[in-house]
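GUN4-like domain-containing protein structure dump, as promised
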Amino acid sequence: MSSNQPKKYDVVLGNQSRASASGVVLGGLEGVKQRLSTEVVEHKIAALPSALNYGEEGLTLVIEALNDPEDQVKEFAHNLLKNRNELRVKVALREYIKRWYSIRYDGLYKTNTIYDERRKLEYCKYLRFYPDGTLLTKSTNGSVEQVAKLLCKDNFIQIDTYKVFNKDIKISTEKFYCATDCWGKIHMHGNTISLNRYDHYITNRRSSKDDFADAYEEYHFIKS
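structure tokens r here:
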């Protein structure tokens, strides 16, 4: 095959849809830049690993992809960079998490309707987060408007806590007889949180019991 023939991920100028005799094949860093400038998600994703072969300029292209309009591209760029140690990469990754994976405080997170077979009733679970690391929870069949008014610190004796670790979140509830830990994920844009709960029961001061429940829960944001 001639060296002038386009390879799988080379960019062809002229007829953009397919290689042609009149097209000009771009390789190297210019080819990477051209692929990243297209609107085709697959082309952008294919170009990003190649960009890292071109030193600081190529690394800059991957960092810029953290703010690409397409979520798949942003996530792929994050996965390429997350284990690198350069200071500017770490700064960019912190900004990426802050921008795209922040918890929202301007409303509630709500599950889909849950049916309790034993009590023969339907209800939803709600979460309200506060910036100071505290959290209010409620299970009810009331309306969203009712829950929004109810979920404020003045109405609650039991207030839970949470901690965020990049895209992960840990929610902790402590009572005199048990502690409940929920580990979960903050999804992109902060509009969905998924939790997996397990209970750590303290039976006395010297022993404890872990109950790993099959309790996957997905909460969706509602502005209120």
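The first helix runs from residue 28 to 36.
lmk if u need the other ones
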